[in-house]
UniProtKB/TrEMBL annotation:
InterPro entries reported for this sequence: Barrel_Baseplate_J-like, Baseplate_J-like_C, Baseplate_J_M, Phage_Baseplate_Assmbl_Protein
Origin superkingdom: Bacteria
Segments traversing the membrane: none
UniProt domain Baseplate protein J-like barrel: residue ranges: 74-155
Family: Belongs to the Mu gp47/PBSX XkdT family.
Domain Baseplate J-like C-terminal, chain residue ranges per copy: 284-352
Annotated Baseplate J-like central domain residues: 178-267
Name listed for the protein in its UniProt record: Bacteriophage protein
Length: 354
C-alpha cells in the first residue's frame, strides 16, 4: 500500500495500523480468489471433487462404488447335532470379526460348517482359506477354534475418487447402454472390487457374452484373479450357475443385459511369463530388483488381458522409465502371445544375472 494514496499519511512504520490493514486485506483477497478457483473446478467433471463429483456422476447414472463386506464359510469341530445360531460372532485371525448369516447343526462327522459375513466392509476382510476362526462367545459342544473352509471374497474398499472420475468421464463420452461390448465392460467395472474387465462376444456360442474380470485390490493376495467358479447368474437356466466373485458379477449384469443375451462371467487363466534380466552391473541390488519387479507388474497390468499379445516395447518402456544406467532383457526375446482366448499373460519369475 502506498502512503501517497492516503491523505495526511507520511512514513509508515513496520508495525503501523495501516501495515496491518494491508496484510489483512491481502489475505482476504487471496482467500476469495482461492474460493473462486475451487468453484470453477467444481463446474466440470474432470476437476470436480467430493460430493460435486458424485453429482456429476448421478446425472449419468454413475454412482461411486461403496465399500462392501467379504463373505465366506468357516468350519468347527462339534458334537453331533450341536447347533450354532445365526448371528454368532467369529474372530478371524488378527483381521477382525465376522457374523454367521445362517444357523447350522453339526453333522455325523463331528463338523459344523456355516456361512459368515465380515462385520465391516473393506478389502481387508478377504481372508484366505485356512485362516484361524475363533468363536468370540464359546458354545457348549463346539470347539472354539476352527478354520476358514471357504475363502472370503467380495470385500472391497470405497472406490478411489480418480477411478470414479474415469468412469464418469467414460459415461459422458458414450451413448446410452444398449448391450454393446463396452456396455458389459462398464457394467462389470461398476461392481465393487472389480478393477478390470473384458468382453468376448459369442465366446461360448452364438448369443453368449463372456465377461472376464479382475479384482486387483480386493484379491491382491491371489494376484487379482476372481475367487469362485465360472458361470452365469442365479436366475439364468441355460448355463450352470457361477459362484464367488463370478456369481456377484453375473447377478449384477443379469439385470442390465439385453433379454436374450447369455452372460457368462469367467476368470482369466494366468499365463506366467518368466524374465531373465542381466547387465545391471553395480545396480544389481535388492532395491533395483524390487523397482524392476514393480515396473513390470504395472506394465503387464496395463497392457495384458485375456487373449492379448504383449510386445517388448511394453516392458522396455517400463524399464526405461526407471532410468537404469544399463540393463538387458535376455528373455523373453519377442512378443508374448496368449495361448488361448481366455489365457492372460502375467509376470512370472524374474531371474537377475550379471
Amino acid at each position: 500500500m502506498q502512503s501517497a494514496n492516503l491523505p495526511g499519511a507520511t512514513n509508515i512504520t513496520r508495525f503501523s495500523v495501516l501495515g496491518v490493514f494491508a496484510k489483512v486485506w491481502a489475505g482476504m483477497a487471496h482467500l476469495h480468489d482461492a474460493y473462486l478457483d475451487w468453484i470453477a473446478k467444481q463446474g466440470v467433471p474432470w476437476t470436480a471433487t467430493g460430493e460435486n463429483l458424485e453429482g456429476w456422476g448421478n446425472l449419468k447414472g454413475v454412482t461411486r462404488k461403496a465399500a462392501s463386506p467379504a463373505s465366506g464359510a468357516v468350519t468347527f469341530q462339534a458334537v453331533a447335532n450341536t447347533a450354532l445360531p445365526i448371528g454368532s460372532e467369529i474372530s478371524l485371525g488378527n483381521v477382525g470379526t465376522a457374523i454367521t448369516t445362517e444357523a447350522a447343526t453339526a453333522d455325523g462327522t463331528g463338523q459344523i460348517t456355516l456361512p459368515v459375513r465380515f462385520s465391516t466392509p473393506g478389502a481387508n476382510g478377504n481372508v484366505p482359506l485356512g485362516t484361524v476362526a475363533t468363536l468370540t462367545n464359546p458354545i457348549i459342544g463346539v470347539q472354539s477354534s476352527g478354520l476358514v473352509s471357504t475363502a472370503f471374497t467380495g470385500g472391497a474398499d470405497l472406490e478411489d475418487e480418480e477411478a470414479f472420475r474415469a468412469r464418469i468421464l467414460t459415461a459422458y463420452q458414450t451413448a446410452g447402454k444398449n448391450g454393446r461390448a463396452q456396455d458389459y465392460v462398464d457394467w462389470a467395472l461398476a461392481i465393487p472390487g472389480v478393477t478390470r474387465a473384458w468382453v468376448n462376444p459369442d465366446g461360448f456360442g452364438i448369443g453368449s457374452v463372456v465377461v472376464y474380470v479382475m479384482l486387483d485390490n480386493a484379491n491382491a493376495a491371489q494376484g487379482g484373479f476372481p475367487i469362485g467358479k465360472d458361470g452365469s447368474a442365479t436366475a439364468e437356466k441355460r448355463y450352470h450357475t457361477a459362484s464367488g466373485d463370478q456369481l456377484t458379477v453375473a447377478n449384477a449384469i443379469n439385470d442390465l443385459r439385453p433379454v436374450t443375451a447369455l452372460v457368462i462371467v469367467c476368470a482369466p487363466i494366468a499365463q506366467p511369463i518368466d524374465f531373465i534380466i542381466s547387465g545391471l552391473g553395480d545396480d544389481n541390488t535388492a532395491t533395483t530388483q524390487a523397482a524392476i519387479s514393480n515396473a513390470l507388474n504395472d506394465a503387464f497390468r496395463r497392457a495384458s488381458g485375456p487373449g492379448a499379445t504383449v510386445y517388448p516395447s511394453t516392458w522396455n518402456g517400463a524399464l526405461d522409465a526407471l532410468n537404469l544406467p544399463q540393463y538387458s532383457v535376455q528373455s523373453p526375446s519377442g512378443p508374448v502371445i496368449a495361448e488361448t482366448v481366455g489365457r492372460m499373460p502375467i509376470l512370472g519369475k524374474i531371474s537377475f544375472r550379471n
